[in-house]
Amino acid sequence: MKRVLVISIILCMPLFIFAQQLKIPIGVFGSGGSSASNSLYRINSTAGQSVIGKGENSSFGQSIGFWYAQTNIVTDVEEDVLSLPTEYRIEQNYPNPFNPGTIINYQLPVPSNVSLIVYDILGRSVEELTNSEQSAGYHKINWNPKVSTGVYFYRITAASADNPPIRFSQTRKLLFIK
Fold first, then answer.
1. What is the domain count for the chain?
2. Which of 19, 37, 69 is the last residue of a domain?
3. Threshold 0.70, pTM exceeds
4. CATH number of 169's domain
């Protein structure tokens, strides 16, 4: 049995070496295929007959009809994935105009005492969305108001928990339509 296996491997080596030199686009595999991905991973797969050759992307490859994982060594991590923001910022709410709800995204470079309040056109406080100490990073608040149609303003005020003189304040406009 060992002899048959060794002979099979020896006979297949030229095919494998030849297949390593071919570059077949991923879409050529089989009679159909699919791709699934998110921000970190991508997997391409195929349905139908296998192919003699090689196709690859950053994580997976197919050689002589078999899927295999490529040996990639991670030497660095993208800064955007794990990094903290470097400045205070509040984004425009999305969607705007909105009904029934909207999302407000903001970022804190350091742990901060945060107050986020919605005001009407006359400057009266409508709703306090948050008033608490929050960790550094990216945050979002979903707001589903129980107010009438109109123009409103949301204002964030943040002060560093460790160094209170560092303050941030910004106001943005939003439109609620019933």
1. 2
2. 69
3. no
4. 2.60.40.2550
Element (H, E) at 104: strand 102-108
Closest CA to 129 of 154, 161, 159, 99: 154
| CB neighbour list of residue 174: distance below 8 Å, 6 or more residues apart | 93, 96, 97, 98, 102, 151, 152, 153, 154
d(CA 60, CA 124): 57
| Domain identity same for 88 and 171 | yes
Q: Say if CB 169 and CB 156 are below 8 A apart.
A: yes
> In this predicted model, what pLDDT tens digit does every residue of 2-20 receive, in sequence order?
666 556 666 655 554 544 5
- Rounded to 5, what percent of the chain is helix, strand, coil? 15, 45, 40
